[in-house]
Structures are given as C-alpha cells and as structure tokens.
Design brief:
alpha/beta, Rossmann fold, 2 domains, 12 helices, about 45% helix, binds ligand LCIUXZ77, binds NADPH dihydro-nicotinamide-adenine-dinucleotide phosphate
C-alpha cells in the first residue's frame, strides 16, 4: 500500500477533481481526519483501489461461507452471470455444487466465463444468449434452460444497464434503454419462470440485485433509480402473492463494489471513488465475493424463512449519507473542545 495525494490523476480527472470536488477534498486536507496522507491506494492488476486506514478493522473475508455441497442437485439461473457481480455469484454457487445457467446478450463472454468457472469447480455452467428486454427471447431462453437442466431452484435477476447523465441530457431512448433492461427485463424473467414453476408445482428462490439509491432516489442516474425502485416493488409484491406457490423473493441493495461494468459508466475518470470512500464508515469498497456469499445464503435452504427482505449491503454508506450531523466526523479533538466551550457558555434561549 502506498499513500497518495489527492489530485494525482490524469488531465480529465484532475480537471473534474478541481472543478467538482475541490471544496470537499480541500476541507479534508485542511481540517479533518481524512486528509490525503490518510488516503491509501492499493495497486493491483493495473487497478487503483482506495481505502482508509480504519478499513483494516473491516478486512473482507472472501472465502466461501456456506458448507460444501449446499447447492448439490440445485439449478441456478443468473442473468448477467458472465461479468462482474453476476460472475462472482455464479462462481460461488457453482463451487457449492449448483448447476448454473448464465444468460445475457454477449454469448462469447458468457461462454468464456462458463468454461472458466466449470473448469475450476467441476460443475456444469451453461451459457444461454438472452436479451432480457425481449419477452420472446426470455421465453426461448427458458425453453433452452429446460432442455439443459430443467426449471431452476434459484433465480438471480442481476442484469442491469446504467450510466451517469444529467436528466436534461437524457433522450427518451436513453431512459427506455435502462428501464427496459432493469425493470422490464426483471419482470419478463420473473413472470416467465414464475408461471412455468407454478405450472410444474416447483418452489424457487428469486433474488433481485438493486442498489442503495433504489430507496432514496438519486440524481444523475434517474432511469436506474426509477427502475430499481420498480424492481423492489415487484419483488415485495410477489413475496406476498406467490409464497403460496413455494416462491421466496428477496432483494440485495449493494453499495459500491468495483466492477468494470459499473465503474466505467458511473465513474469513468475515477474521480468520485475517493470522495465516496470518505463517506463509507467501513472505509473501503465491497468485494464481489462478499456479495456472492450473501446471495448464496439468501438463495439457499438455510434462508427458507426469508422472503420479502431488503438487505442493504454497503459498508454503512447509506446511513452515513442520510444523517444530518454525520459530517461532524471531520471535527478534530481541538475543534470539539472549542465547540463544547461555546455551547456550554450559552445561557438562555
Ligand atoms: C465510484 C462510483 C462507481 C460505482 C458505484 C457507485 C455507487 C453504488 C451504486 C451503484 C449502482 C450501480 C448500478 C448499475 O446498474 S451498474 C451496471 C452497469 N453495467 C452496465 O450498464 C452494462 C450494460 N450497459 C450497456 O450495455 C450500455 O451502457 C447501455 C447504454 C445501458 C445499453 O446499451 P445499448 O447498446 O442497448 O444502448 P445504446 O444504443 O448504446 O444507447 C441507448 C440510448 O441511450 C443513450 N446513451 C447511452 N449512453 C449514454 C450516456 N453515457 N449518456 C447519455 N445517453 C446515453 C444512447 O445515446 C441511446 O439513446 P439515443 O441516442 O438513441 O436517443
Ligand atoms: N458494482 C456496483 O458497485 C453495483 C452494482 N449493482 C448492481 O449489480 C448488478 C451487477 O452489476 P455489475 O456486475 O457491477 O455490472 P456489469 O456491467 O458487469 O453487469 C451487468 C450485466 O448485465 C448484463 N446485461 C446488460 N443488458 C442486458 C440485457 N439487455 N439482457 C441481458 N443481460 C444484460 C450484462 O451482460 P451483456 O452485456 O452480455 O448483456 C452484464 O453481464 C446490477 O444489477 C447492478 O445494478 C448495484 C449496486 C452497486
């Protein structure tokens, strides 16, 4: 680990940094306990990753949590399973004994992931091309899965699209592109599989990956925020309606976890990561393996009494952003002494 100074980035991010974040970062530098000297940068595989010193209290455990064989004789269907978090979840489920089917648009990417994971775990991973925006394609994908593995025990709706964009620059097609993948795609997959499972009297666990801002909303990712909120309403509603058919529905809201797909579209210059880490109480990003362990637990028989749950998984970022006075973390001991003296010396109203 090497300490880095804020502002070491390249031209574009340097410009953005000074224009957008200068006040925030400068404040930190001057007066708070999270200045550049305490901002650490790990360098590995060509990627930067910032963390605070106190993140050492929260070192990630990336080993597989559930007992070996927990998914023997189970079939798991994961949308967007070829990359990022979907790939991590597929790896863990496969390692635990599941036969996995991964689906998305890019067949070559899926095939490569399937080959790599199955050669590591010894369990079959099937790649099926599917654009979840197209209900007919979803139906064909499920036909193909039925041929390969039969209907699944576990469905993970993980596929998504996103990009940062001021809403006044957003075209109708930009809106449609994101909401079609996230909300309609999740609905098409869930309805198609749900109906077939019901016909076959087979129970299943459904999991949706949303995000922390599904609850709060967020500027600059408005189609994603709207669609993810819709996914949460869909899953909470079906948890109530389809329990009688043996179906559970749960939701994970991840905070920031480094993946190429997310970071290239949400932080293309790498400028925002540092300020984001400053507001995460555990002082670091999440790891795909941590998310995968939680998903494996929620989708397993160990969680058979969990349905309708919304699990925030963000190192504390959401509550840290929400609390009115949380910025007072930045006040030093000397400043507290002064503030306390001022407050105690105030008499009357
Ligand atoms: C440090 C911060 C980093 C991260 C974490 C932070 C916080 C935690 C919360 C994070 C939540 C993350 C949520 C996610 O969902 S991340 C997942 C990201 N992964 C992907 O997006 C993968 C798939 N994405 C894509 O395939 C594409 O990006 C796209 C655009 C979604 C779909 O591709 P498609 O080929 O179908 O679409 P296009 O034809 O290219 O575009 C359609 C339409 O949209 C307009 N568009 C595209 N990009 C932009 C842009 N950047 N700005 C504005 N508009 C855009 C495009 O122009 C088209 O519209 P028209 O021109 O036709 O009007
Ligand atoms: N990483 C993070 O910090 C966070 C991620 N999330 C959520 O986690 C999930 C995974 O994201 P992440 O792994 O980071 O990003 P990725 O970009 O790696 O994952 C998105 C996946 O969705 C697939 N996909 C996109 N469009 C379609 C489509 N039309 N049909 C089928 N599949 C599609 C992509 O595959 P292909 O291109 O082959 O279609 C890709 O595999 C998403 O739901 C995201 O919203 C939530 C909060 C934070």
């Amino acid at each position: 680990m090497v300490p880095v100074s804020v502002g070491q980035a390249g031209n574009v991010s340097g410009l953005l940094l000074s224009l957008i974040l200068s006040e925030q970062v400068q404040n930190r530098t001057d007066s708070v306990d999270f200045g550049p000297s305490q901002l650490w940068c790990h360098r590995f595989a060509g990627l930067r990753s910032y963390a605070t010193p106190h993140s050492q209290f929260f070192a990630p455990s990336e080993g597989i949590m559930l007992p070996a064989g927990s998914y023997n004789n189970k079939v798991a269907f994961i949308t967007g399973g070829g990359t990022g978090l979907g790939r991590a979840m597929t790896g863990v489920l496969s390692q635990l004994g599941a036969q996995c089917v991964i689906a998305s648009r890019k067949l070559e990417v899926l095939q490569q992931t399937a080959t790599e994971i199955s050669s590591q775990t010894g369990n079959k991973v099937h790649a099926v091309q599917c654009d979840v925006r197209d209900p007919q394609a979803v139906s064909r994908c499920v036909d193909q899965m039925v041929e390969l593995t039969g209907l699944p025990d576990v469905i993970i709706n993980n596929a998504a699209g996103n990009f940062i964009c001021p809403s006044e620059r957003l075209s109708a097609n930009g809106w449609k592109s994101i909401t079609d993948i996230v909300l309609n795609g999740t609905a098409f997959v869930t309805l198609e599989l749900g109906k077939r499972l019901i016909q076959n009297q087979k129970g299943a666990s459904f999991l949706a990956i949303t995000t922390i801002y599904a609850e709060s909303g967020s500027g600059f990712v408005v189609p994603s925020a709207s669609a993810k909120a819709g996914v949460e309403a869909l899953y909470k509603s079906l948890a109530a309606e389809w329990g009688r058919y043996g179906h559970r529905f749960n939701i994970i809201q991840p905070g920031p976890i480094r993946t190429k797909g997310a970071f290239s579209r949400l932080d293309p210059t790498g400028t925002f990561e540092k300020s984001m880490i400053g507001r995460i109480p555990t002082g670091r990003l999440g790891k795909p393996a941590e998310l995968a362990n939680l998903a494996a637990y929620l989708s397993s028989d160990y969680a058979s009494w969990m349905s309708g749950a919304v699990i925030r998984f963000d190192g504390g970022e959401y509550v840290s952003m929400a609390g009115e006075f949380n910025e007072l973390r930045k006040v030093t001991d000397d400043q507290w002494k002064m503030l306390e003296t001022m407050i105690r010396s105030t008499k009357g109203s």
